[in-house]
Design goal:
Layout lengths: L1 E3 L4 E3 L6 E3 L5 E4 L1 H20 L15
Antiparallel strand pairs: 1-2, 3-4
């Protein structure tokens, strides 16, 4: 029903993503919701990936004689 590429979420024809409140009312739907979800997922993946690395310190570099 939902798939993703490197640039977007893809929803099956005839379907839309929606944000629904706890009473079942549709608050927002369509492309803007898909883009917002994709952007949030992308940001989380990048944050997760980058958290596994640290910056260089002075000790990482050898001093030449």
């Amino acid at each position: 029903m939902v798939s993703a590429s490197n640039t977007t979420l893809s929803i099956e024809n005839g379907m839309k993503l929606a944000i629904v409140d706890d009473k079942g009312n549709i608050v927002r739907q369509g492309e803007d919701v898909s883009k917002e979800i994709f952007d949030a997922m992308t940001e989380q993946v990048v944050r997760n990936f980058c958290s596994k690395f640290s910056g260089f310190t002075e000790a990482d570099f050898k001093k030449s004689a």
